[in-house]
């Protein structure tokens, strides 16, 4: 038989190269076990509603009314929908000529982009231009769009933190660019060291790579740290000096679990720094409705804001966005609701505050329970989850475990995570999916399982880990600390 | 301040001679060998229609503020510069500008409103959504009200029942959660059953990938198939520019085949063969064939025996058949019927392992026209498990498509049945929309055929008419004088005079020296007479101005 177009050896090599561990081997095995009837605790994806988090009521009321606008004319609508939800539904429907069923402008509905700009302005204290805000089907699509604009070929490098969220490595691979890693320092609470950045860039350049952009994830995924103001200043200066676009993944900006380092946007710091840098340093910031106390992952809503990008480049980005016609409209409305929430005095305000505070406070407690739990385990160390939705403990694997993994043809942390899954049903992502220093092993869990289940989950993890260490430890030493 | 970006990028590219996907490639002569010189011109024209220097390019110099920044127009991905999407191009930008002016200054133009006939976006022109679908979506978005007795007064009983069924299929009943990257399994089961009922052949839910509209699915397949410029995709000309844009973005080569206007946009297998052989002889490895059925922008519905020939051709040549079947519900003539390529292939006795076939479907078209939802799917058959794994992996990088769109995709493939409470209202709404579209298509086609120098094939399906205009020599000269393609010149004048927005034929590709435009049949029926009279009046004036 002749070789066919889609025979494996005939595929686009970039497709084959791309890896996305969050839904990789562990996830597939977990799905299999679930089919066999085993109870699986999915902590592999930051997917709060899948683990029982209830959606905020008000936005769901508004979007339901927008889906079924004929209800607005029904005299009985007030029996199950509060007046402010009805008013808000009318507000959003007035922004579009065809309701939820029509393509919007390819950048998103102008009215909602204006609400996003107002939100950014209020958050940062600096003006924001709705024309430079594009709504997207989740933040991932935005990241892909921007990277596609930047990457011309394997000679173009993108600085990406290691450990990183694999969206970046996967997309760079798909687009045929080069990932230039910079390491976050685990012993300094996943701090970002500028000296290390310089080294990474110098090394990439010596290999003929043009480094064009730098990704920061703040708060960090999978590492959970919040960048300090001083650190952000250093990063922006570095980008300015090295002529890099800064891509600020700020999707976890609502998820902060300590008071020392609140979230500060890269845009605010950039503007604080004044000219020339505030006028020249290029920045693209990403946000989403999937995280925060919203957790509306299934809606696929997001936006990016561009700063100091030339109008002609913005036009090209618009053109490519227009090929996809428009982002989905219900999620645009979720975005509007997120950036323009209820105000004191609104009928639904108290309920909204109660629900959102309840979620955030519980996440804060869960972050504490989880990191404390990991740190109480043998050969496990874990930085505190300052923000985002994940804990990223280091597992010090005994040499015998590493040998056993090799024998089984597995990367050591994959080996550990598979055993953890089989023994406890806890589905995690091995650290190798995010990148880590050689000889060091981690796993990522979300902090999203229900709070009441948390003690039991941590107990079952501890029991597994004790047994694992007992089996493989012979007191000769560990993998590097 | 969106100017005609494609035009500028074309200029830039023309300067830098990196117009690679077809023209500068070592195999570019593919389209200029003598027997194909006509087609070479065609393609050149197709890609270069407005490539003359843009007189308004003074904006080129205004970017000096950005001269030291890392992302500049000359340092972005050239594939981004190269791709084009005319459905939202220059004419639409002008329309948006006019709309703003009308808003600020009513009476500033000879019309009161802009009529968007450029894009298949029915609900933006007043088409109402199918009530049952929206009831179910609202309930799934706000399941907290499902148990309330008041809800029964506001929603039909079967919509409540369907919402319960759907929620039960979602793990944790969580509509706010990412789903399986192929889409929620229960919804894929429903869709597979819908395909089976349509075709009379089994469909496997594991073959279905739910996507945010059909476009991302097309991108996914292009990404998978395209390794370099040496990989070619056979595309119809005229074509829906998603294909040319996606091929350009992924760095492949568009290998055109030509629909014959004289035979109602017929698809000749002999032309396919010629194009394939020529491409091969130039070192292009042709990997897939795109067929749009019903056609966009051309509106023809393929006859079953023509489809059989296409299937045989793909099988014999080892090509993946990419079947764009998003207009499958939009059929307006009694003598034509939609047959899915899967049904045709299976009827011919070709099984799973005999042919690689991808069928695209969308919630944006049909009688439902739910463009804003971004729902769609592709059904992939005839692929090995390892390829399937690769498709799944790429899908997983984006996590999943939006859940509301997924639910809607399951609803369109499993609408209310006879006996359901909503059946009557559902089928009345559906029939009203489809029969009105058929009448609108007919009226517009007749009106267009009545214009001097205009010929228009009937719209057997889809949502568009694609009339050919015989432009007077003086009009062509006037267009050349302002560095504009003649059909763009016509469309611009039409817009400025009437507020009607159409897409110039050059955005879709056309035989050189012929000029077309694409006009949707979507304005509400009571508006059609006014549109026809405005169009007729404009056309007459235009011809008077430029005739002889």
Short description:
By secondary structure, chain A is of the alpha/beta class. In chain A, 42% of the residues lie in helices and 13% in strands. In chain A, the strands form 4 sheets. In chain A, strands 2-9-8-7-6-3-4-5 form an 8-stranded mixed sheet, sandwiched between helices. In chain A, strands 11-15-14 form a 3-stranded antiparallel sheet.
Explain this structure.
The complex is a heterodimer of chains A (about 475) and B (about 550). By secondary structure, chain A is of the alpha/beta class. Helices cover about 40% and strands about 15% of the residues of chain A. Chain A has 17 helices and 15 strands. Chain A has helices at about 15, 25-35, 55-65, 85-95, 110-125, 140-150, 165-175, 195-205, 230-240, 265-270, 275-280, 310-325, 330-340, 350-375, 400-405, 410-425, 455-470, and strands at about 40, 135, 155-160, 180-185, 190, 210-215, 245-250, 285-290, 300-305, 380, 390, 395, 425, 430, 445. Chain A is globular. Chain B has about 550 residues and is of the alpha/beta class. Chain B has helices at about 5-15, 20-25, 35-50, 80, 90-105, 130-140, 150-155, 155-170, 185-200, 215-225, 240-250, 270-280, 305-315, 340-345, 385-395, 405-410, 425-450, 475-480, 485-500, 530-545; strands spanning about 115, 210, 230-235, 255-260, 265, 285-290, 320-325, 355-360, 375-380, 455, 465, 470, 500, 505, 515-520. Chain B has an eight-stranded mixed beta sheet with strand order 2-9-8-7-6-3-4-5, with helices on both faces. In chain B, strands 10, 11, 12, 14 and 15 form a five-stranded antiparallel beta sheet that branches. Chain B has a two-stranded parallel ribbon with strand order 1-13. In chain B, α5 (about 90-105) runs parallel beside α19, α10 crosses α11 and α18 (about 475-480) crosses α19. Chain B: Its cofactor is pyridoxal 5'-phosphate. Chain B: Homodimer. Chain B: InterPro entries: ALAT1/2-like (IPR045088), Aminotransferase_I/II_large (IPR004839), PyrdxlP-dep_Trfase (IPR015424), PyrdxlP-dep_Trfase_major (IPR015421), PyrdxlP-dep_Trfase_small (IPR015422).
């Amino acid at each position: 038989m002749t070789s066919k177009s889609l025979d494996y050896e005939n595929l686009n090599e970039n497709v084959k190269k791309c890896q996305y561990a969050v839904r990789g081997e562990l996830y597939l095995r977990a799905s299999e076990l679930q089919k066999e009837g085993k109870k699986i605790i999915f902590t592999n994806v930051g997917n709060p509603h899948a683990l029982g988090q209830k959606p905020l009521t008000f936005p769901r009321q508004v979007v339901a009314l927008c889906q079924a606008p004929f209800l607005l004319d029904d005299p009985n609508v007030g029996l199950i929908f509060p007046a402010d939800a009805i008013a808000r539904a009318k507000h959003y429907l007035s922004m579009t000529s065809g309701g939820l069923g029509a393509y919007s402008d390819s950048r998103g509905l102008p009215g909602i982009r204006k609400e996003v700009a107002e939100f950014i302005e209020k958050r940062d204290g600096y003006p924001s231009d709705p024309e430079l805000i594009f709504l997207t089907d989740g933040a991932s699509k935005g990241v892909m769009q921007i990277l596609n604009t930047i990457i011309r070929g394997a000679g173009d490098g993108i600085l990406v933190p290691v450990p990183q969220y694999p969206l970046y490595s996967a997309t760079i691979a798909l687009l045929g660019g080069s990932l230039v890693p910079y390491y976050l320092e685990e012993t300094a609470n996943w701090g970002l060291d500028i000296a290390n950045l310089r080294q990474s860039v110098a090394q990439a350049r010596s290999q003929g790579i043009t480094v064009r952009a730098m990704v920061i994830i703040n708060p960090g995924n999978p590492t959970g740290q919040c960048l300090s103001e001083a650190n952000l200043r250093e990063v922006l200066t570095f980008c300015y000096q090295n002529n890099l676009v800064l891509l600020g993944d700020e999707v976890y900006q609502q998820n902060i679990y300590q008071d020392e380092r609140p979230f500060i946007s890269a845009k605010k710091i950039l503007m604080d720094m004044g000219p020339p840098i505030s006028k020249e340093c290029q920045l693209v910031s990403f946000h989403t409705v999937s995280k925060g106390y919203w957790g509306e992952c299934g809606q696929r809503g997001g936006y990016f804001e561009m700063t100091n990008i030339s109008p002609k480049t913005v036009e090209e980005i618009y053109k490519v966005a227009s090929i996809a016609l428009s982002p989905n409209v219900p999620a645009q409305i979720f975005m509007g609701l997120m950036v323009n929430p209820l105000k004191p005095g609104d009928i639904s305000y108290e309920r909204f505050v109660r629900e959102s505070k309840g979620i955030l406070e519980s996440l804060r407690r869960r972050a504490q329970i989880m990191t404390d739990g990991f740190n109480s385990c043998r050969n496990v160390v874990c930085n505190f989850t300052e923000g985002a939705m994940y804990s990223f403990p280091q597992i010090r694997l005994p040499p015998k475990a590493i040998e056993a993994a090799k024998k089984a043809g597995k990367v050591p942390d994959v080996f550990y995570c598979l055993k953890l899954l089989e023994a406890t049903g806890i589905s995690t992502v091995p650290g190798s999916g995010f990148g880590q220093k050689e000889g060091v092993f981690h796993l990522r869990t979300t902090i999203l399982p229900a709070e009441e289940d948390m003690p039991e989950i941590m107990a079952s993890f501890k029991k597994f880990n004790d047994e694992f260490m007992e089996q493989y430890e012979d007191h000769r030493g560990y993998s590097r600390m | 301040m969106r100017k005609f970006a494609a035009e500028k990028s074309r200029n830039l590219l023309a300067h830098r001679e990196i117009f690679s996907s077809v023209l500068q490639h070592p195999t570019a002569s593919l389209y200029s060998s003598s027997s194909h010189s006509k087609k070479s011109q065609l393609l050149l024209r197709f890609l270069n229609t407005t490539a003359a220097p843009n007189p308004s390019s003074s904006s080129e110099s205004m970017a000096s503020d950005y001269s030291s920044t890392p992302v500049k127009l000359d340092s972005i991905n050239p594939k981004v510069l190269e791709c084009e999407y005319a459905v939202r191009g220059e004419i639409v930008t002008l329309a948006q500008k006019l709309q703003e002016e009308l808003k600020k200054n009513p009476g500033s133009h000879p019309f009161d409103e802009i009529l968007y006939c450029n894009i298949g976006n029915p609900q933006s022109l007043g088409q109402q959504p199918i009530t049952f679908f929206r009831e179910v979506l609202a309930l799934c978005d706000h399941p907290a009200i499902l148990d309330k007795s008041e809800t029964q007064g506001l929603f039909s009983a079967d919509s409540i029942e369907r919402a319960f069924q759907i929620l039960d299929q979602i793990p944790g009943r969580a509509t706010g959660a990412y789903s399986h990257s192929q889409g929620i399994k229960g919804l894929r089961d429903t869709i597979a059953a819908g395909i089976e009922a349509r075709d009379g052949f089994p469909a496997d839910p594991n073959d279905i990938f739910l996507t945010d509209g059909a476009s991302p699915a097309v991108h996914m397949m292009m990404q998978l198939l395209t390794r370099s410029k040496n990989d070619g995709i056979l595309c119809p000309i005229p074509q829906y520019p998603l294909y040319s844009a996606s091929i350009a973005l992924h760095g492949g080569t568009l290998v055109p085949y030509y629909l014959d206007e004289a035979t109602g946009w017929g698809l000749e297998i002999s032309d396919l063969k010629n194009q394939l052989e020529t491409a091969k002889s130039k070192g292009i490895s042709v990997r897939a064939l795109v067929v749009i059925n019903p056609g966009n922008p051309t509106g023809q519905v393929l006859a079953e025996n023509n489809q059989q020939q296409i299937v045989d051709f793909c099988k014999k040549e080892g090509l993946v058949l990419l079947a764009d079947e998003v207009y499958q519900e939009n059929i307006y003539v009694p003598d034509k019927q939609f047959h899915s390529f899967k049904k045709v292939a299976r009827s011919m006795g070709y099984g799973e392992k005999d042919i690689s076939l991808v069928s695209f479907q969308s919630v944006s078209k049909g009688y439902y026209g739910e463009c804003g939802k971004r729902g769609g799917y592709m059904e992939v058959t005839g692929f090995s498990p390892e390829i399937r794994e690769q498709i799944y992996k790429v899908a997983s990088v984006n996590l999943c498509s939006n859940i509301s769109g997924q639910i809607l995709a399951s609803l369109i493939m499993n609408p209310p049945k006879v006996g359901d409470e909503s059946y009557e209202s559902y089928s009345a709404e559906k029939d009203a929309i489809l029969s009105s579209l058929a009448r609108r298509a007919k009226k517009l086609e007749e009106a267009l055929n009545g214009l001097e120098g205009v010929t228009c094939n009937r719209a057997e399906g889809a949502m568009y008419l694609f009339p050919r205009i015989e432009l007077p020599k003086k009009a062509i000269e006037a267009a050349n004088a302002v560095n504009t393609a003649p059909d763009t010149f016509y469309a611009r004048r039409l817009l400025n005079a009437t507020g009607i927005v159409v897409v110039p034929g050059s955005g879709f590709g056309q035989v050189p020296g012929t000029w077309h435009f694409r006009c949707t049949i979507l304005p509400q029926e009571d508006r059609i007479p006014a549109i026809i009279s405005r169009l007729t009046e404009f056309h007459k004036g235009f011809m008077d101005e430029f005739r002889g």
